[in-house]
Amino acid sequence: MPEISVIVPVYKVEPYLCRCVDSILAQTYMDFELILVDDGSPDNCGAICDEYAAKDGRVHVIHKQNGGLSSARNAGIDWVFANSDSQWFSFVDSDDWVHPRFLELLYEGIQRFQVNICQCRFFRPDGIEEIPEVNEKMLCITPEEHYLNYYSATFPTKLFSRACWYSMRFPEGQIYEDVAIWYKVLFAEERIALVDEQLYYYVVNPDSIMQSQWTPAQMAQIRGWDEQLAFLRKNSSSDAVKVIRVKFIRVLWKHYRKIKETEKLSRLKKTWYLIQVRRKLNGLMRESSYSEERWIYEQIHPVREWCYWTAKGVLGKVKRMIKH
């Protein structure tokens, strides 16, 4: 049986699929199997997957009804547990692609430090598809160090032990699933490995959830960040909490802007969701004494900020007059 199972959910990515699959099949580390999960894609993706399976014995295809990214990943995990003895799992999104040494270096990091998870860095190639040379800089870090210096909740940049998935699955019916469970998987480990190289190429797909107009379903990301922050408050240092709080503030700001721009909601619903996001943002800003990302607060409360700074300036002048 192969050593690594690479699971790729496939849905409406016909322009990107071949580049993704070809980049996986061209890996320098060859002891792997590729599971393509056709998640009820309405285009030609299912047929393309079958063509790859007919040409390469390492490729297996699962055809299923559409259930979303989490459902597709879980189907891949369940297939591996039922049909394969591979000991390592990798997840790649079908509109992205990977460096030829992606699996080689992640697996080397696992073996060098004897850990259950290894991650690399990712970047957005912006249309440039030249394959860069990479070094082999590897580190072994704690969950705390991960949050302080190398935070990435993105599952496709990582290689996982089979043991990580004995009792863990992605939450189905929920978007932003990575944020919802990454911290649970991470803090089950004492250490993880890091390949400090950009081996995963994240492509901005205009049809993806991340690029679409805002819908109430995207509140799941806010709930995921909220739960993650609550977990860190109990299990990590104040420094890690501060790092995630700042990132959470930025996430809320993006939601705030997208809600204001969306045309899919009535004025009443838009106001309701804006109030919820603004309330959460105000709470985080108060917790940080307004010192973190204050410019965001100024954008959301321009009148309040103008009054605050005007009053502060007037009081300063009054104090100076009294002294003189």
Give a written overview of the molecule.
It is a single chain. By secondary structure, the protein is α/β, with parallel strands linked by helices. It folds into two domains: 4-205, Alpha-Beta Complex (Spore Coat Polysaccharide Biosynthesis Protein SpsA, Chain A); 213-305, no CATH class. 49% of the residues lie in helices and 16% in strands. It contains eleven helices and nine strands. Strands 1, 2, 3, 4, 5, 6, 7, 8 and 9 form a nine-stranded mixed sheet that branches. Strand 2, helix 2 and strand 3 (59-64) form a beta-alpha-beta unit. Helix 6 (177-186) packs parallel to helix 7, helix 7 runs antiparallel to helix 8 (238-261) and helix 10 crosses helix 11 (302-323). It starts with a strand and ends with a helix. The mean pLDDT is 90.
What are its keywords?
324 residues; alpha/beta; Spore Coat Polysaccharide Biosynthesis Protein SpsA, Chain A; 16% strand
Layout: helices, strands, pairs:
Layout: E1 4-10, H1 14-25, E2 32-39, H2 45-55, E3 59-64, H3 69-83, E4 88-91, E5 97-98, H4 102-113, E6 117-123, E7 138-141, H5 143-149, E8 158-161, H6 177-186, E9 192-201, H7 219-235, H8 238-261, H9 267-287, H10 294-300, H11 302-323
Parallel strand pairs: 1-2, 1-4, 2-3, 6-9
Antiparallel strand pairs: 4-8, 5-9, 6-8, 7-9
Helix pairs in contact: 5-8, 6-7, 7-8, 8-9, 10-11
